[in-house]
Write a structure and sequence with these properties.
This protein is an all-beta fold. The protein contains one helix and nine strands. The longest helix has 4 residues. Helix content is 3%, strand content 43%.
């Protein structure tokens, strides 16, 4: 509680009605629909957010949720990188993972283990949009690459 996030890219207006901090409020978005105010939706862009933890602390895991519904142009991300900083100026990579496209699942729960066990006040989270969208949509006239991000949990 009390954490704030600053986003580099704004969510689409129709998928950001709950505000930026909705992804830190402890409430999970719907598993069956992406139109509720708990999801942040980004069209054709990555997600990059910097979280101020208020005080420096040790981080073991970062958990995130993503919506995945390829028929509507919503794809799971291809990669997540977590960076830590003590001063919000110099960041270093402290965790990450590559992901495969999940065509058969609506929800992707990602658990990123932090390998650098130092105290950090700021976390920068970079989520790279799907690299699978172009292949999936190669024969479609309208092409979308939506990235839907839900709750971020820091442990």
């Amino acid at each position: 509680a009390g954490k704030k996030i600053t986003l580099k890219y704004e969510p689409a207006p129709q998928y950001g009605t709950g505000g930026h901090d909705v992804i830190l409020n402890g409430i999970k978005a719907s598993d069956s629909r992406y139109s509720d105010s708990e999801w942040l939706g980004f069209l054709n862009s990555d997600f990059e957010g910097t979280i101020d933890l208020i005080t420096a602390d040790y981080i073991d895991n970062v958990k995130m949720r993503f919506y995945n519904y390829n028929r509507d142009g919503i794809f799971s991300p291809s990669e997540i990188e977590i960076y830590g900083s003590k001063d919000n100026s110099e960041f270093r990579l402290i965790g990450g993972m590559r992901l495969a496209n999940l065509a058969d699942s609506n929800i992707l729960d990602a658990n990123i283990r932090i390998f650098d066990q130092k105290r950090f006040r700021y976390l920068k989270i970079l989520v790279k949009k799907s690299s699978y969208a172009a292949e999936y949509q190669k024969n479609q006239t309208e092409k979308y690459n939506w990235l839907f991000v839900d709750e971020i949990v820091i442990e």
